[in-house]
Amino acid sequence: MKLDVAHILDWMEKANDKIQQNKTYLTSLDQAIGDGDHGINMARGFQEVIGKISASDYSNVSDLLKDISMTLLSKVGGASGPLYGTAFLKMSMALKDSDSVDYPQFVHAMEEALQGIKQRGKAEKGEKTLVDVWETLLEQLKEQDDFDSVRFEETAKLAMESTKELEAKKGRAAYLRERSIGHLDPGSVSSYYIFSSLSDVVKESV
Amino acid sequence: MKLDVAHILDWMEKANDKIQQNKTYLTSLDQAIGDGDHGINMARGFQEVIGKISASDYSNVSDLLKDISMTLLSKVGGASGPLYGTAFLKMSMALKDSDSVDYPQFVHAMEEALQGIKQRGKAEKGEKTLVDVWETLLEQLKEQDDFDSVRFEETAKLAMESTKELEAKKGRAAYLRERSIGHLDPGSVSSYYIFSSLSDVVKESV
Amino acid sequence: MKKIINDPNSAVQDMLDGFVAAYPNDVKRLPGTTVIARKDAPVTNKVGIVSGGGSGHEPAHAGYVGEGMLDAAVAGEVFTSPTPDQVFEGIKAVDNGAGVLLVIKNYTGDIMNFEMAAELAEAEGINVKQVVVNDDVAVEDSSFTTGRRGIAGTVFVHKIAGAKAAQGASLEEVQAVAEKTIQNVRSIGMALTPCIVPAAGTPSFELKENEMEIGIGIHGEPGIERKEITTADEIAVELTEKVIADLGLKSGEEVAVMVNGLGGTPEMELFIVNKKVNQLLSDKGITIYDTFVGEYMTSLEMAGCSVTLLRLDQELKTLLDAESKAPAFRR
Amino acid sequence: MKKIINDPNSAVQDMLDGFVAAYPNDVKRLPGTTVIARKDAPVTNKVGIVSGGGSGHEPAHAGYVGEGMLDAAVAGEVFTSPTPDQVFEGIKAVDNGAGVLLVIKNYTGDIMNFEMAAELAEAEGINVKQVVVNDDVAVEDSSFTTGRRGIAGTVFVHKIAGAKAAQGASLEEVQAVAEKTIQNVRSIGMALTPCIVPAAGTPSFELKENEMEIGIGIHGEPGIERKEITTADEIAVELTEKVIADLGLKSGEEVAVMVNGLGGTPEMELFIVNKKVNQLLSDKGITIYDTFVGEYMTSLEMAGCSVTLLRLDQELKTLLDAESKAPAFRR
Ligand SMILES: Nc1ncnc2c1ncn2[C@@H]1O[C@H](COP(=O)(O)OP(=O)(O)O)[C@@H](O)[C@H]1O
Ligand SMILES: Nc1ncnc2c1ncn2[C@@H]1O[C@H](COP(=O)(O)OP(=O)(O)O)[C@@H](O)[C@H]1O
Ligand SMILES: [Mg+2]
Ligand SMILES: [Mg+2]
Ligand SMILES: [Mg+2]
Ligand SMILES: [Mg+2]
């Protein structure tokens, strides 16, 4: 795999499209076990990301990821804002000065991002948060030595779906205890959109 | 006609029954063009009247009417409380020390009551208030020289029904102006119940 | 009907007990009545001020009882004027020889019940005067009908008359400044939803999902016009323009603004309305001396708001600013 | 969805403008931010106190900005924690060298955003401390999960920390008294209806005509238990007993009581609840030092209420009684 600035721009466009299309769905998932703003938060944040990055020129992926991070941090709010903001910030830092990203770099960036998320959110896998998607993906990435778009997307989807049966231990859904079981975790669904968009980008770029 | 204490007690029992049965209906009439409390007010007040007068002994109609008046004054509230309270007070005063009431006395008492109502409420006939029922009845009473139960009841009913087409000029319904047209005046309906009860009492006592 | 009550028939009694339980050092309930009075009533050498009306308008009227405002508030059943005997108890409890002013909202029922109470009080030698608040411009002012209703503007009358009385003014002076306030205060309301009188159990009217009612009263009465719901800005402009026109307010004049919630409207929406009211007045060169945003005169859980403007001169400004310890109007 | 707004996307902005328009002499909005600060911020030689959170809880949080309470309140979108950059602006605006205390409600989002802001502030050499309010006893307290939510009890933390700071206490002292307040305050809420986030347009959950939800949060989150609606007295007892048990309150202790409306409940019902809360506490020999009935921490137009008890000692009583000029908490 080889991701350059254009690929990341494309990734964000695709992710934004998915999030805008599923804004109401994400919100309804959050209404069931949270406070009903996840779709609204993500749609607002990614719209701003597109506005920001399409108005600038980038010579390397690190700067681009930094702008994505800062925009998410200052426009999303709630729990998801700092988490996604931190994730992209850590990716940016892991890819300092790179103008493109190969597979080992990508895995490293993902690893840093996940660590950032877990540190910020103090969550572990299995607690029904977006960590469930990120950590499952990282485990899969580490098993291989190049990016497998189909498997990546499938893994993200399964991990997202697996949150349905879990009882939430972190985030707002945790207040519901066992009543949180039977509902998808909204943040895991938005993470799935982001990663399935990445899968599409890589698939098309081959 | 000859009304004694027992008749008036019976009158109040019958009036109370009608009002309790039609509490919701009276309230719904008041919801349409007022504030939705007329049935509640009248039901509360007449219930208290029954409680009061059935716990006392009366040697003349004047004392009985005075207790009815005072109970209505202190338990009904709203516009109807002072009006009905005043009406019964004026009747009581007109029948001072009488232990029974003949037809001329009854007409005189009605005349005093109506005057009291009009003075208190500053309303004239045709303004869509209970004055429409009381004044129409008084006009009819004056045309005859004895009580005609059937005609009395019919007159009250027609007068009550005639308020439907009027535009309210007094009371809460007046705020609605032409939107008050097409609805019965709640106070005229409760007055109709009171007078049709009286008609029944006289009919049965013959 | 979803309400946190025990029994529709005890709602007003329970509320009054709960009110006194909240402010036991400031107010008392006259035993066996629905009257809430200042704990220290009657106050020596001070004109007493008594107001009241149906319940369901909380914090009106008991919330305005306190030093600098009302001496007593008389509560009726929900949306039903209190009876003359109760008002009479209120008058007796606050009179200490200086006389008592009754602040009445212009509803037939309130006027008749308060008037009868005044007659009872006068028969006992108490000097009683009355003022009738009729600030609602929704209703046309005509001498042939009942005239205009009294709504949220009444709170300013309580405040200003109360401050004047606290200064030691005579009954005539207090009445005069109350009349002046009434001359200079106008309001109009609107609603998005009806409300439910506990004892009735059903809403007083229905509004469709896209409808609002302009010119609503505070008793769940239908308003004067039903139309399609529009933006907060358009609502604010419509209400405020009606009030400005009726008051004949001109550039350079000074006003106090009240954006009042009717019970079920979040404060967020009241501030959104206030933004536009403020803008509109500023654009017209009308100076805003002070602003009151919140729930002052409600209609149970009705969603909606009213806008009140009070034209101010130096005297009214001073009295508006004077200290008040009433729970619902701390200054 | 029936709301008096212009556009769901501008609701928070419009509200903040309308808020400043209402209190122009007391507060300011930091340009280009969602921060409302005291007009005279930063105050020399005084610890700054910053709170905030999602909007939709009005009068929280801007209503508590004022002398004797908060120095700044940071508003997020409806029910969404504000972002770190906004909180950082608030911190910078109120710091004058004495340091800044952040009063955070225990929600993952709030904690993360405020923590990141604190990191940014520390990087600029500002001394920042934090306290996390977690008064909601509906949620079990477990170290494995997020812990308990912060709800209406937060208002007491604002008041007491604000009073301490106004006395000129150090950042550590202000933090300590805030912690002490948090240790001694507990709340629980219930709802009869859900609420509608403007940008979502649909209610967060449904309740049948005969259902209520116990242990509700202030974000339209479902509660912990749904059951048949009962009397005000039974509701008051259930909520108050939970709080008493969790605080371990004993006869002879003193408390402040808050009966808080969630936005759509008429004040009448809050007083009815207060009657029973008061009775229950008195029966148990617990002394009520002061009572607060009204809307302090709302959830848009949700119908429902919460009960908060704060165990008091001499220090907390003095600080609770201290002067406050915050529009929503005048003392
Ligand atoms: N402590 C945490 N660690 C990781 N992810 C979390 C944590 N708390 C919440 N999340 C994620 O954030 C999502 C909710 O985001 P959002 O609704 O935007 O914020 P909020 O919950 O503050 O309203 C959850 O679905 C979950 O995936
Ligand atoms: N000025 C008036 N003169 C005579 N009757 C009146 C007057 N105002 C109101 N009423 C009568 O009172 C009735 C309303 O009574 P009620 O609903 O109990 O009081 P309120 O209008 O104060 O809520 C009206 O239907 C009308 O018949
Ligand atoms: Mg959420
Ligand atoms: Mg009525
Ligand atoms: Mg009435
Ligand atoms: Mg949120």
Can you characterise this structure?
The complex is a heterotetramer, with two copies of chain A (206 residues) and two copies of chain C (331 residues). Chain A has a two-stranded antiparallel ribbon. Chain A has 206 residues and is mainly α. Chain C has two domains: 173 residues, Rossmann fold (3-Layer(aba) Sandwich); 135 residues, Dihydroxyacetone kinase, domain 2 (Hypothetical Protein Tm841, Chain: A,domain 3). The longest helix of chain C is centred in the last third of the chain and has 17 residues. The relative contact order of chain C is 0.14. The chains are: A mainly alpha (206), C alpha/beta (331). Chains in contact: A-D, B-C, C-D. At the C-D interface, helix 1, helix 6, helix 7 and strand 11 of C face helix 1, helix 6, helix 7 and strand 11 of D. Bound molecules: adenosine-5'-diphosphate (2 copies) and magnesium ion (MG) (4 copies).
Question: Which terms would index this structure?
Answer:
heterotetramer, A: mainly alpha, Serine Threonine Protein Phosphatase 5, Tetratricopeptide repeat, 9 helices, 68% helix, globular, C: Rossmann fold, Hypothetical Protein Tm841, Chain: A,domain 3, 2 domains, six-stranded mixed beta sheet, binds adenosine-5'-diphosphate, binds magnesium ion, phosphoenolpyruvate-glycerone phosphotransferase activity (chains A, B), transferase (chains A, B), Dihydroxyacetone_Kinase (chains A, B), kinase (chains A, B)
- The amount of beta strand of chain C, in percent, is 15-25%
Class per helix and strand makeup of chain A? mainly alpha
The low-confidence runs of chain C, each spanning 5 or more residues with pLDDT under 50, are: none
What is the assigned CATH homologous superfamily of the largest domain in chain C?
Dihydroxyacetone kinase, domain 1
Gap between N and C termini of chain A, in Å? Answer: 8 Å
DSSP helix count of chain A?
A: 9
Largest sheet of chain C: 6 strands, mixed
CATH topology of the largest domain in chain C: Rossmann fold
Mean pLDDT of chain C: 96
The number of helical runs of chain C is 8
Question: Order of strands side by side in the largest beta sheet of chain C?
Answer: 1-2-4-3-5-6
Under CATH at level 1, the class of chain A stands as Mainly Alpha
Q: Give the largest interface pair and sizes.
A: C-D, 60 and 60 residues
Distance between the first and last residues' Cα of chain C: 37 Å
Based on DSSP secondary structure assignment, what is the total number of beta strands of chain C? 14
- When the domains of chain A are counted, the total is 1
The tally of structural domains of chain C comes to 2
Number of strands of chain A: 2
What is the fold-level CATH name, i.e. the topology of chain A? Serine Threonine Protein Phosphatase 5, Tetratricopeptide repeat
Oligomeric organization of the protein chains: heterotetramer
Keywords (chains A, B): Kinase, Transferase
Organism (chains A, B): Oceanobacillus luteolus
GO molecular function (chains A, B): phosphoenolpyruvate-glycerone phosphotransferase activity
EC number (chains A, B): 2.7.1.121
